[in-house]
Amino acid sequence: NLFSCLICAILAAASIQFIHFEYQGQARSAFFNAPLWIMAIILPIGYAIIAFRFAVNSLSGIAGIIRSHKR
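and the corresponding structure tokens:
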């Protein structure tokens, strides 16, 4: 789970760079003529949520292991 969290965090950072690149290019979508960076903004949000979920699951797993060893 920690490895998955790390990968999602890296993907979130890479997608932020992608959005910055799209913002500088001022490219427009054929769909609603909206800027591409607005449509891509869901990428880092989604990856950050997934990374957070993996981190919480990892920490709860580690806490469960620590609690089981104390008994």
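(Above: one complete record from the training split.) The mean pLDDT is 93.
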